[in-house]
Design goal:
mainly alpha; 15 helices; globular
Length: 413
């Protein structure tokens, strides 16, 4: 009986692990596939835990996760649309948080962690090639996306900003892997080549939010890997020297890179839209600053708070923090930020343990923190957390970092 039970648990584990590997590969390729695989992983995860008679696994983020989950559930009771909030809670929030626990519990050794990271590299290589192909042909060979008619690349994603968010989440793992001890020179050359490819794609995406996120991740990595900062400064000087060869759009975006939130100088179409959307979102937040207007109801309430004569919409807030605050209030925003605070607190605590600094997992944890930081910076100006693929990428990376924290026993030190 125990032998059969062990076989069932083992098979469940293999199905879950295969699902995670496939999700890592198909994240930028097919929303339908990753949605189906995430549900499969969650179902078999729950089934496995029932057989093992175990509850939700411990992670260092559990307090923040449960607080955020409680606030989101509480928000349903005071929502302006009970149906929308209920669907959002059970089909999005609960699913994402369960997926986080699946990742944190399943990636329980270095081999699995390494495999997930390398699969991300293989998938990003395909995306990078697709991006360059699109730059010259104005076509995407993966999803055959419609040409947006703009001098920016977006590969298999809907928008260049989404592509940029994906790139800045993967690039930190390339950087830290390059510095991992014991790698063969040929593999380091391949890592360097992939980094150059993705960096070029990042520039050609012309996404200011992604650029700022990338800069933030590099500055963070520079605290532990000083040579990263040196290389970054050299690259900055090279870009400045070659500035005259850039397209007018890239020049304009670079000139206004750090003026992203200055409403008086934002004149392009996307920035004007954000100005209107952010003002509308702010009015929505002020209408119920403590508990919000209801989980998932931002677009439902959008027209009620729109004062400008604006023919488009409704939209997401294009600022994930503003949307969380508008929908779930200050309490909801604090609960979400608490998840991030706990992740960085315990993550940095482990990074500062020098005796772990030569382990592969140490570098991946550093990459996870840098990737989440880049992602969080990008969330100030876009909707990435609310898209299926990029939202799943966020919880995948957060779960990956949390898995390492579990494996290292950070609280025991």
């Amino acid at each position: 009986m125990n032998l059969n039970k062990g076989k069932i648990i083992n098979r469940c584990d293999k199905i879950i692990l295969f699902s995670l590997y496939a999700i890592a590969y198909f994240l930028p390729i097919s929303k339908a596939i990753i949605e189906s695989l995430s549900i499969i992983a969650i179902v078999f995860f729950i089934f496995k835990k029932i057989i093992q008679r175990q509850g939700i696994p411990f992670t260092h983020l559990n307090f923040g996760i449960f607080a955020y989950l409680a606030v989101c559930f509480f928000s349903i009771c005071f929502s302006s649309n009970l149906k929308i909030s209920s669907i959002t809670f059970f089909c999005k929030i609960l699913q994402n948080l369960l997926f986080f626990f699946v990742v944190a519990d399943t990636l329980n050794n270095e081999r699995r962690i390494k495999t997930v990271v390398y699969i991300l590299f293989i998938s990003s290589l395909l995306l990078g090639i697709d991006g360059i192909y699109q730059y010259f042909t104005h076509k995407d060979f993966i999803r055959h996306r419609v040409d947006l008619g703009i001098p920016r690349i977006y590969a298999s994603f809907y928008t260049p900003n989404d592509f940029g968010c994906y790139l800045i989440t993967v690039i930190p793992f390339l950087i830290v892997t390059f510095f991992t001890k014991g790698l063969k020179k040929l593999f380091k050359v391949a890592i360097s080549g992939l980094f150059i490819l993705l960096f070029i794609c990042l520039i050609l995406s012309v996404s200011r939010g992604a650029w700022l996120g990338f800069v933030a991740s590099i500055l963070f990595l520079g605290f532990w890997l000083r040579s990263v900062m040196v290389v970054f400064l050299i690259v900055v000087f090279l870009l400045l020297a070659l500035r005259s060869f850039f397209s007018p759009l890239i020049k304009d975006r670079l000139n206004n890179l750090f003026n992203f939130f200055d409403m008086d100088i934002l004149t392009d179409g996307g920035s004007i839209e954000r100005r209107i959307i952010w003002r509308t979102g702010w009015r929505m937040f002020l209408s119920s600053p403590l508990i919000g207007v209801g989980l998932g109801t931002f677009m439902f309430n959008y027209k009620k708070f729109l004062s400008e004569d604006y023919p488009y919409g409704p939209f997401y807030a294009h600022n994930c923090y503003l949307q969380i605050a508008a929908e779930t209030g200050t309490i909801g925003l604090f609960a979400f930020l608490l998840i991030l605070i706990l992740f960085f607190f315990f993550g940095i605590k482990v990074l500062n343990k020098r005796n772990n600094s030569k382990a592969f997992s140490w570098y991946v944890l550093l990459g996870s923190l840098a990737a989440i930081l880049a992602y969080c910076v990008h969330m100030f100006v876009d909707t990435n957390l609310y898209s299926l693929d990029l939202g799943m990428l966020f919880w995948l990376v957060l779960g990956l970092g949390s898995a390492i924290l579990r494996n290292t026993g950070a609280l025991d030190g």
